[in-house]
Amino acid sequence: MIYKTEIPSPLGTLTLAADAEGLCGLWLPAQKQFTDALLKEVERKDNLPVFARTRAWLDRYFKGKAPSPDELPLHPVGTAFQQQVWAVLRTIPYGETTTYSAVAEKISLSQGGKKGSSRAVGGAVGRNPISIIIPCHRVVGKSGSLTGYAGGIAAKKYLLSLEGVDIDKFTDPR
């Protein structure tokens, strides 16, 4: 069973989803795709402990603090490759950015040097079901482009600025 709730944020209403193992979704209002896990039966349940912990985490985050993704029980549902990518995303420090090619390189090193694809990484980043907490907004194009963001480029700029990143050094793909 998947449970969901909605909470207000500076970016608008966020949708949270959880299963028995932990938080499995966090989506911004503009996100187009939700995880396949939500194709199962979903029940609204606002008072789950994981939702309270996530609200507290997000409150600190939106106040400019740097909470760690490891503070929450995360259970993103995806392929083995997507899980690898999302694990790398969780290691990107607050206030820093990396590129799709750097993520691909980290994954290839973990696989004994097998060459990774930036495009495949981009697909996995775009399917990250737990936005903000698994910080896909910290991944930018090698050329310095903010590239696409499922929550919208304005949200990506907001999140990076909140973390103290100088977004003027990046180009807006729009």
Structure, described:
The chain has about 170 residues and is an alpha/beta fold. It is about 30% helix and about 15% strand. A hairpin with a 6-residue loop joins strand 1 and strand 2 (about 15-20). Helix 2 packs across helix 3 (about 100-110) and helix 3 crosses helix 4 (about 120-125). The longest helix is centred in the first third of the chain and has 14 residues, at about 50-60.
List keywords for this structure.
four-stranded mixed β-sheet; alpha/beta; 174 residues; 5 helices; single chain; two-stranded parallel ribbon
Please outline the major beta sheet.
Answer: 4 strands, mixed
Radius of gyration: 16 Å
Give the amount of beta strand, in percent. Answer: 5-15%
Number of strands: 6
Return residue spans where pLDDT drops below 50 for at least 5 consecutive residues.
none
* Form type: globular
- The amount of helix comes to 25-40%
Mean pLDDT: 90
Helical/strand content category? alpha/beta
Strand order of the largest sheet: 3-2-1-4
Distance between the termini: 39 Å
Number of helices: 5
Oligomeric state of the chains present here: single chain
Order of helical and strand elements: EEEEHHEHHEH
